[in-house]
Design a protein that fits this description.
alpha/beta; 11 strands; disordered N terminus; three-stranded antiparallel sheet; single chain; 306 residues; 11 helices
Length: 306
């Protein structure tokens, strides 16, 4: 009876995460852009700032809507509401707050994570999707820092496969495609395995984080690695099915991405974020999503990438 109860709980958790994965795969470019999850944020409560609007590049001054690219499978930062179409999360709320300050509507488009940065300046005005600021990305785009997160791992509850971060050679490790967890972290760990004469890590790279979580709950992968807020949220959403493996490490700032040749717009976004921080809007948004521990005190344009 004890064994069957555990299996029942595991099955229920798989179904719950599978439902999240289905919504995470939905391409919602034409869906609505406002909704509510754990947030009560109302962008109409944020006053526009004419002085900051005056600093906008000419191409953006008369533009009614800012287009934002986001991978909406990364709960609680950016994900889809239960309607399968509406982007929500703290990054989504921050995008709408930025738009409010600049007197713009905001449309958050669901996009594959790895395609957002290359689409800046053409398809998207901003990329707000938990981008860790690193040297490689900083060569390609402008970043305005706005959040701090680290890397965290998770395994099935009780760690039945006895996974250790010191011995993951040959193990099936799930990561989201294009993240720093995939490259350089797990990639470098795998290279060390091979250099030591051990089997390479079997990296399971999936486009949606929700799919990675689903596979871990079902036991088809041995562990997963993601940003710390996402792992903590996954533990909460899957009930008693997962637990953390080790501690948070490699804490780094995340950034709002702007096209590399649009420094003037990036400078405006830096000023807007610092205004939202000073006004308390920024902190309140993070608190609404239980992630204010990742708050930073000052937004910086193109900070030194670690």
């Amino acid at each position: 009876m004890h064994i069957s109860s555990k299996l029942g709980l595991r099955f229920a958790a798989v179904l719950a995460v599978a439902a999240l994965a289905l919504t995470g795969c939905n391409n919602a470019d034409e869906g609505p852009t406002t909704g509510s999850g754990s947030s009560t944020f109302d962008p109409s409560t944020v006053a526009k700032d004419d002085a900051l609007i005056a600093l906008l590049p000419a191409a953006l001054k008369d533009k009614a809507t800012l287009n934002v690219g986001a991978d909406t499978s990364y709960e609680p930062a950016e994900f889809l509401a239960t309607d399968g179409q509406t982007p929500i999360g703290y990054d989504v709320d921050l995008a709408h707050a930025i738009g409010a300050v600049l007197g713009k509507d905001v449309k958050v488009h669901t996009s594959e994570f790895s395609t957002i940065l290359p689409s800046l300046g053409s398809k998207y005005d901003l990329g707000i999707s938990s981008f860790t600021i690193n040297p490689e990305r900083s060569k390609a785009v402008n970043f305005v820092s706005y959040f701090n997160a680290g890397v965290l791992w998770a395994v099935q509850k009780g760690n039945p496969k006895n996974i250790s971060l010191d011995d993951i050679c040959g193990k099936k490790i799930g990561v989201q495609t294009g993240t720093v967890e995939e490259d350089p972290d797990v990639k470098d760990r795998s290279a060390k395995c091979v250099a030591d004469g051990k089997p390479a890590i079997d990296v399971i790279s999936l486009k949606n984080q929700t799919d990675v979580t689903t596979r871990l709950v079902s036991g088809s992968i041995d562990a997963m690695s993601a940003d710390s807020p996402i792992i903590k949220n996954a533990l909460q959403k899957t009930g008693d099915s997962l637990e953390t493996l080790g501690d948070v490490y490699d804490s780094a700032e995340q950034g709002i991405a702007i096209a590399k040749d649009d420094t003037a717009f990036a400078e405006v976004i830096e000023k807007v974020m610092n205004k939202l921080m000073a006004d308390g809007v920024y902190t309140q948004i993070l608190k609404d999503w239980n992630n204010d521990e990742g708050a930073i005190t000052k937004a910086v344009l193109n900070p030194t990438a670690g």
